[in-house]
Amino acid sequence: MKLDHYWMPFTDNRRFKGRPRLVASAKGMYYTTVEGKQVLDGLATLWCVNAGHGHPRIVEAIRRQAGELDFGSSFGLGHPLPFVLAERIAALAPRGMEHVFFTNSGSEAIDTAMKIAVAYHRLRGEGTRTRFIGRERSYHGVNIGGTSLGGVAANRKAYSGILMPGIDHLRHTHDAKRRFVRGCAETGAELADELEERLIPLHDASNIAAVVVDPVAASGGVLVPPKGYLARLREICSRHGILLVFDEVITGWGRLGAPFAAQHFGVEPDLITFAKGITSGAVPLGGVIVRKAIYETFMHAQGAGMEFFHGYTYSGHPLACAAGLAALEAYAEEKLFDIPLAGRFEDGVHALKGLPHVVDCRNLGFIGAVELEPRPGAPGARAYETFEKCWERGVFVRPMGDALAFCPPLIAESKHLEQMFGTVAEVLKTLS
Ligand SMILES: Cc1ncc(COP(=O)(O)O)c(C=O)c1O
Predict the structure, then answer these.
(1) Which atom of ligand 1 is nearest to the CA of 108?
(2) 139 lines ligand 1 (CB under 6 A)
(3) Is the CB of 250 under 6 A from ligand 1?
(4) For residue range 110-131, what is the model confidence (pLDDT) as tens digits?
(5) CATH hierarchy code of domain 60-333
(6) What residue segments make up the domains of the chain, in order of their start?
(7) What is the pTM of this model?
C-alpha cells in the first residue's frame, strides 16, 4: 500500500508517512494496529466514541439499516428515522429546545447555526443583526463560518484574507497564573463582562446576531470556564437580544456527566450544535438543536413555501440516524452519562502534577489535559514526543500545542485510566 496518495487532514503528512501509525480494527477501549498491537484509546479517537468501539447495538443497527433503506433524502421527501431521532434528542435537550436540524459534521452544524441566527433575526424585522462574537482559543470546525468564529491562531493564519467579516472575539478564559485547578476555577466569571463592556458598545447590540462559545474549549487545550462565566454570558445576551449558541460538539452526549454541558452548568442557550458522540463516532452526523420560539418564528413567517433555504444532501441520512438512535439507547441502557469514575479521572489528571515538564493540569467530567513546558524554540515538540512515545507503549492521547488531551470513551474502567495516566507518567520521566 502506498501512503502517498491520501492527503491526511490535520496531520504532519511528511512525518506521519515516514513513521505511520495505522489501526486495523477496534473493540471497546482498544485499537488493534496493522502490526497486531493493542493500543488504548485515550481520546475516544477524536472526542467521539463515547460508547466504546464496535458497540454491538450500534454495529447491528447500521447493518440492519443498510439493508433496509440505504439512502433516503430529506428534501421534500422524508423517511421516519430523522423524525424519531429528533424526538429523542429533544427529550434529552434542555427545556424548551425542541427542534433539530441535521447536518453531517460539527463544522456544518456551526455554519447552520449561524444561518439560523441571522435568518431568525431578519424574520423578526432585525435584519441588521448579522455580526457574531466568538472567543479566542475556541474551535468551531473548519468551514469558513467556523474558522472565522474560531480562535485557534494556527487554524486561521493561512486564510486570514478570506475569513468572514463581521466577527469579533471575546478573550479566552484561561488564566496562566491559575494553575492545577480541579474543575472550574472559583474566580474569573467577570471575563464575560467584556461582552457588555467592550464588544456590545463597539458594534452595538442591534448589529449582533449571536455569541458562539464551546462551553469547555477542548481542541483549544481543554480550557474549563470559571464558575458563573457561562451564566453571565447568558444574562448579557438576554439583556441585549443576542442569541447564545453553545457548541457542544465535544461537550454533548455525556462528556460532562449530563446529556449536554448546558445542563451541567445550568445555563440555557438558544441553539446547541452537536456531532461526534451522537453516533459514538460510528457514522458522521451532526446537527443544531433549536429553541422552540426560534423554530416557530420560521414556521409562522408570512408567505407559503420553504421556510429555511438550507440543507445538506445527507441531512438525516438513514445510516447516521440508525447509528444515532442505537447510540442513545446504549447511553441510556448503560447509564454512560453518569460517569461514576469522573473523580478518579480528575485524580489521575492531577497526579501528573510534579512530574518533569508539567506546568498545568486541567479537567472537567471525563475530559482533561496536562500542559508541558515548551522546549525553547520548539513549541509543541515535547507534547508531540510524549504522544509518540505513549503510542509506542500502547496508549493514544492527543497532543494539542504544548498540551496533551485525555478524553476516554465513557465506558473506561479504573484499569484503563490507570494504564493511560501511568503510561503518560512513565513517558514524561523519560523526556529531555
Ligand atoms: C467544539 C467543536 N466544534 C466543531 C467541531 C468540528 O466538527 P467536525 O470536525 O465534525 O466538522 C469540533 C471538532 O473537533 C469541535 O470540537
Answers:
(1) 11
(2) yes
(3) yes
(4) 999 999 999 999 999 999 999 9
(5) 3.40.640.10
(6) 13-54+337-430, 60-333
(7) 0.98
